[in-house]
Amino acid sequence: ETFLPTTLAMCLLFSTLPLSTASMPPYNYT
C-alpha cells in the first residue's frame, strides 16, 4: 500500500497551497 502516503502527501500539499497564496497577497493582488 504505497498509495496511502502519496495521496496523503498530495492532499497536504494541496491543502497548504491556498494557505501559502493567502499569506502572500502581492501575488494575489498582482
TrEMBL record:
Keywords: Mitochondrion. It comes from the Eukaryota. This is NADH dehydrogenase subunit 1. It comes from Harpesaurus borneensis. The lineage of its organism: Eukaryota, Metazoa, Chordata, Craniata, Vertebrata.
